[in-house]
Design goal:
The complex is a heterodimer of chains A (244) and B (343). With 244 residues, chain A is an alpha/beta fold. In chain A, 35% of the residues lie in helices and 20% in strands. Chain A contains 7 helices and 7 strands, in the order ααααααβαββββββ. Chain A has a 5-stranded mixed β-barrel with strand order 2-3-4-6-5. Chain B has 343 residues and is mostly helical. Chain B has one domain. In chain B, α7 crosses α14, α9 packs across α14 and α9 packs antiparallel against α16. Classes of the chains: A alpha/beta (244), B mainly alpha (343). Chains A and B meet through α1, α2, α3, α4 and α5 of A and α1, α2, α3, α11 and α13 of B.
Chain lengths: 244, 343
Amino acid sequence: MKRETQNILLVLLGGALLKIALNGTYLRYVKPGQQAWLIAAGAVMVVIAFVSITRDVLAARKPEQVTAAVDDHGHDHGHGIQSHSTWLLILPVLAVFLAPPALGEDAVNRAAGRTPPPPAAEYSFPALPAGDVVDQRVMDFVDRAAWDKAGTLNDRNIRLTGFIAHNGDSTYLARLAIGCCAADAYPVKVKLEGQGLNTLVSDTWVKAVVRYQPGTSTKESRHVPTVTVTDFQSVPEPPDPYEY
Amino acid sequence: MTTVAADQEDTHHHPAPRKRRLPIGSLEILCVLLVAAVVFQDQLASLLSSEQIRTGATKFVAVCAQAIPFLVLGVLISGAIAAFVPPSVLRKVLPRRQALAVPVAGVAGVALPGCECASVPVSRRLIQQGVAPSVALAFLLAAPAVNPIVLVSTAVAFPGNPEMVLARFVGSLATAIVMGWLWARFGKLEWMAERALRRLPDRDGRSRWVTFVETARHDLVDSGGFLVIGGLTAAVLSVVVPASWLESLSGQIILGVIVMALLAVILAICSEADAFVAASLSMLPLLPRLVFLVVGPAVDVKLVALQAGTFGKKFAFRFAPMTFAVAIVCGVVAGLVVFGGVR
């Protein structure tokens, strides 16, 4: 592959990284902390490519230095197969260009059931804040339902934010939790009970006020708690679709 | 265009008779590809209406967005070593005897925070700067697993089992050192692609900064494509392999260890995050999960693709299975010693 083509691919890929980092879509793929890394990496790629393009242009202008310039990169060029692989750099560029959406129902149903890791033996969950309705992350809710022996969730109205996922006859409010990037996402979900849940469209984002049905988060239910829905409203997809 | 524009494949040190070639070069192909992508944008976008492909595409972009910054960090360090660290310094710092230098390099891995993608270009650069391959390979295997970021995230992921951090450190370091020694004893240089061994020519008048930029650029272009292969494989496997695999493993230690080791290879999760995945698989005992953490940073599909690209296929097909076996053994032994039995 020509040096110029490589440089253009680098500019495209660096530009793609900068694009997702600056317009916020990077949150569909990685954690918020990755933004600075993405910007830095994108900038470095673009700078490297432009330095190299500038050097080539300058070298081309001064014929007496052409041989030296060729030697510069002649010594480390690839052989056949190796340089062909560079073509693959175009795939992430195209993929970013198509901007695949954040993971949703499909990823939730595809993943294996996972038990939330039990906390240390001496740990006890702090009391929930006072108030009629308390906001909780789905992750924390599932955690409490599974391991809280003191029953702090019982008889409390909790507001959860997540998207709708259907599996068989059951309807879930789900969220994907990521450790590092969307490739290691695992679902956290609660099973909803209430009227007219079957008609909800998959992957719509909702804020639901729910009450935990004590004793439903067991080994048999794979620690997916069942909740009664008391109030319900659709919300737009949050910019930051994952829990961490 | 002048000779500068000549294809790299055609640029030889000795003037060779130029082949007649079609007037279509890579630049033209790239332009056609880009125009086609714009014209057929709707068709491309409709690919994403399939749920499987959509999930796979998101995971693919995620792997790239996660790994490319670390690869860039790796090539910058590699460029800096090429430009600013003369081979004589490396020779002085490392013990002369390989048997001693291998553990030193393993422990030095603590100093490179990041995932496994960063360490591949760095260790190739070390070899090109005259460091013995066994020593550079020990560094390659140790760096992604024993650095502070990874150890801290392991501690955070296993709040109830601090011994996991120690077990992971010991298991990974042991894997790196054993592989280094094995290579020193049995490894053959001819397994490595010639390009991985080629010494850098003297800088003959070029400024250090030019060397820095050119080396970094070259490493990036070289390994970037292989990272993409790895990311693609990981994304496809995560969609295709049924998750029900793990269902019936809870009681079976030996099967659990083997399956978790294989899972580490095909999931290709970066080493900063794998502890969280392992922690969430709490239906399994600690030992198989430790093996998952020791194998993952040492060998996975993304890393094998990168190694094949960097050191050559002959190398990767020998090194990867060997590392896989050694990592399982080291993980199990470290677990038995630190946990005091199967837990």
